[in-house]
Every structure is written in structure tokens, then in C-alpha cells.
Amino acid sequence: MAALSANSRRDMEIRRYPALAYVLVPLAALVLQAWLSFVLGRFAWFDLPLVVTVYFALGRRSPVQGTLMGAGMGLFEDALTTHAIGVNGIAKTVVGFLAASVGIRIDVENLTIRLVLSFLLSLLGSAVYIFVYRGLLGLNLQWSWLTELFKAIGNSLFAMVLFPLLDRLQIGD
Question: Which of 86, 91, 93, 116 could form a disulfide with 128 if both were Cys (CB 3.0 to 4.6 A apart)?
Fold first, then answer.
């Protein structure tokens, strides 16, 4: 009986957005990320597509949709860079799946929980990216855990600003 109420609770709390939001928000994140990476170079301590992936995966609470969102965002981001195609796709796929899986089990309405999840998922995404790039592909990648920590902090701070703005796009029941 408890399992049935948990499923119905989860179904009631799934966030819904206008169809254009699913297209325009990720597109804007990809364009801004490409432009800011060009302008700021190595000082771009945030990953806008990752933050958008985490937001929609937490809100929709569907591991399949989180996985597809992460894969799509990562592959499109890879297409805009000179790095190996698919590395960001793999990292963001893992992050999208885990964000949606966590969103099913805990209440993600709290801004503090969202902040901590954004930080941890950003670190996880960086670790997966580095593992795939260096470990599996055997390519040379200059990286530093301090830089990845700053990127995770930047992603979390950006998420604190972006998440409440995106909450306004939510369709009420």
C-alpha cells in the first residue's frame, strides 16, 4: 500500500512545462555556453547545459527523460567544441539519469537540496568526463581538481539563480 501512495505522490509532483521551454531553454544554454567559453576561455567556470539537464531531470523525475536530455545536451555541446564527440554526451547522460533517479526519491523543491545536488552532480559529471577522455580514450587532457571544484561551485551558484527563474515556466495543474 505504501508503494502505491509513493507512486501516486511522485506522479502528482512531476513538473510540466510548455513544449517551447523544452526546446528554447536547452538551446539558449548551448548557445550561451559556446559563446561564453569563447569569450572567457579557460575561465568559464560553469557548464550551462549541465545545469539545465539537472533542472529538467529533477523536475520531470523520469530516468529515461533525464538520460535522453543529458545525452542530447552533451552531444550538441560536443558538436560545438573541438573535443572528441560523445564525451560530454556520456557524462551528461550519467548526470541526467542520476538526477532524475534522485528526484524520484527525495523532495527536490528545497533550494538547499538543489544546490547540493547541483554541486555533487557537477563533480560527478567532471569525473566521468575526465575518466572517459583520459582513461577510455587515452587522450591528453589538461585538468585540475581545483578547477573542477571551482566549476562545480560556479554551476551551483548559477543553478541558484536559474532554477527559480525556470520554476516560473512551470505549468500549473
Answer: 91
- Does the pTM surpass 0.70? The reply is yes
Q: Secondary structure of the chain in the HEC alphabet?
A: CHHHHHHHHHHHCCCCCCHHHHHHHHHHHHHHHHHHHHHHHHHCCCCHHHHHHHHHHHHHCCHHHHHHHHHHHHHHHHHCCCCCCCHHHHHHHHHHHHHHHHHHHCCCCCHHHHHHHHHHHHHHHHHHHHHHHHHHCCCCCCCCHHHHHHHHHHHHHHHHHHHHHHHCCCCCC
At 71, list the grid cell.
Answer: 545525452
Chain position carrying cell 539563480: 161
User: What is the spatial distance between Cα 146 and Cα 45, in angstroms, rounded to a whole number?
Assistant: 11
Tens of pLDDT, residue by residue, the chain (173 residues): 444 444 544 454 677 888 899 999 999 999 998 888 888 876 678 899 999 999 999 988 889 999 999 999 999 999 988 878 899 999 999 999 999 999 888 888 888 999 999 999 999 999 999 999 988 888 888 888 898 999 999 999 999 999 999 989 888 76
Beta-carbon neighbour count of residue 3 at 10 Å?
7
The residue to which cell 536530455 is assigned: 69
- How many other C-beta atoms lie within 10 A of the C-beta of residue 43? 11
